[in-house]
Design goal:
It is built from ten helices and 15 strands. With 329 residues, it is an alpha/beta fold. Strand 14, helix 10 and strand 15 form a beta-alpha-beta unit. The structure holds NADPH dihydro-nicotinamide-adenine-dinucleotide phosphate. The site of NADPH dihydro-nicotinamide-adenine-dinucleotide phosphate (NDP) has 33 residues, from helix 1, helix 2 and helix 3.
Length: 329
Amino acid sequence: MFKGILLNKNEDGTTRAELTQIDEASLPADGDVTIAVEYSTINYKDGLAITGKSPVVRKWPMVPGIDGAGEVIASTHASWKVGDQVVLNGWGVGEAHMGCLAERAKLKGDWLIPLPKGMSTRTAMSIGTAGYTAMLCSMALAEQGVKPTDGEILVTGASGGVGSVAIAILAARGYKVVASTGKLAEADYLKSLGAVDVIDRAELSAPGKAMQKERWAGVVDSVGSHTLANAVAQCRYGATVAACGLAQGMDFPATVAPFILRGVKLIGVDSVMVPIARRIAAWSNLALEIKPDTLDKITHEITLAQALEWAPKILAGAVKGRLVVNVRA
Ligand code: NDP
C-alpha cells in the first residue's frame, strides 16, 4: 500500500477527492516503470481534476498529478533501471493514466525523461509542467526570430505558474518583459522576477477593437479569450504570440486583421504530447537558465494533504507562482 490522492466519481457526477492508502496492485498494468515519487505539483489542470470543475479525468478511480519526479524502483523498459532519476510531464497522466500525486506511480518508460544533471527532483517539480510550458513558449518566440532588441514582450497571467516562469526566462534572456496581472499588489514580486513594467489585466480582458496601437514584439499568453484577442490586436508588425492557456476562457474573439495586415504569427503551444527530443531540449534549457534563487521566489511547498485545499485556489487564480508537493511529507 502507498499514500496518495484518489479521485472517485459520485453518483451525481461530482468528484470525490481523498488522501488515502492505495493498493499497489491497482496501478496501471500497461505501465512498465514504477517510480517512487518524491515531488509532484499542482498545475491548473490538477486543480480541474481534483475539484471536478472540468471533465479532464477520463478513467475512474484516478490518481491526479500530471507531473512527477522521483526514482525508478522497478522497470521492464530497456531505457530505465532501478535507481535512475526521472521526470514525467503530461502524456495524459493524471487524466487517463494514474498520476503522480502519490508515493508511487507506474508509468510508460517512453514518457519519461532523465532528471537534468545537477537538478534536484524538488527543483524539477518547482518548474513542473507550467515552467516547462513557459520554456516551450520562450523557445517558440526565439524560433520565430523575436529578439530582445525588437521591443517589449507581454506576459499575461503573470503571477501564475506559466507567467512567473516565463517572466524569469525571458528577462534572463535579455527581453524587456511587461507583466499583465490581476494582482497589482504583486508588482514587486513580478519585478523581482525581471519584469520592467506591470499592467492591470483589466486593460486587456474586456472586448476590444480588431486593430489597436502597436506595442508588443512578442507575447506569452496563458489566459486566452479577450486577453489573447487584445494582445494580438496590439502586436507590432511581424510579432509572434505564443498561446498556451485558457485561464480567462477557451474562446478567441478576434479577427484576422492583425494576421493579414501586420503579419502577426500565432503559435499554439502544447506541452502534453511534445516529442521526447524537444522535452529534453526544453528541460536542458531550464537547467541552464533558471536560477535557484529565482525558483525560491516562485515556489511554495505543500504536502499531499494540503494539495486538496490548494486545488480550488489555483482555479480561482489565487495562487502566486508554483506549488510544489512534497509527496513524502
Ligand atoms: P495558474 O493558475 O498558476 O495561473 C493562471 C493565471 O492567470 C492566474 O494566476 C491569474 O494571473 C490569471 N488569471 C486567472 N483567472 C483569470 C481570468 N479570469 N482572467 C484573466 N486572467 C486570469 O495556472 P498555470 O500558470 O499553471 O496555467 C495557466 C494556463 O495555462 C491554464 O489555462 C492552463 O490550463 C494552461 N496550461 C497549458 C499548458 C499546455 O500544454 N498548453 C500547460 C500548462 C498550463 P494574474 O492574477 O497575474 O492575472
